[in-house]
Amino acid sequence: MISYSSADLENSLKSLGVGEDSFVLVHSRLLSLGTLRGYSISEIPQQILNSFLRLVGKKGTIAVPSFSFEYCTSLDFSLLDTPASSVMGVFTEYVRQDFRSKRSNHPIQSLSAIGKLADEIGVLSSESAYGVGGAFEFVVNQKGSVVLLGCGV
Hints:
By secondary structure, the chain is α/β, with parallel strands linked by helices. Helix content is 28%, strand content 18%. The chain contains 5 helices and 7 strands. The longest helix has 13 residues, at 44-56. It is globular and about 40 Å long. It starts with a strand and ends with a strand.
């Protein structure tokens, strides 16, 4: 299995343009990345989040897709309590549960974010996550970047 260090991860992210003041939407599949040297499996999501936050600084924002497809079969949705669908990955759920995280108010295709613009994402409420006033329009308007961390295209 591949292993890497936090420095390896941060250097790779820097080479993609992730840096101070960035707005980054992260899609992830941590299993594909291998192991982060010096950390247990359960510590990897926190360390990856720490790496992103170090790079974007206090003026940057990290967002993840916290989609909840199960809403389609249930009428219950809570911004705070409804987990992201398991197919969204462990990093997404880790970010969603972080005390600093804010979630957009879309029951199926929400984003969860930490950072300077997290509060603005947390108040977004639109019938379409992709339409006017939706979370993805917000990402585009912020000139956000998308990082596929361990994901294929």
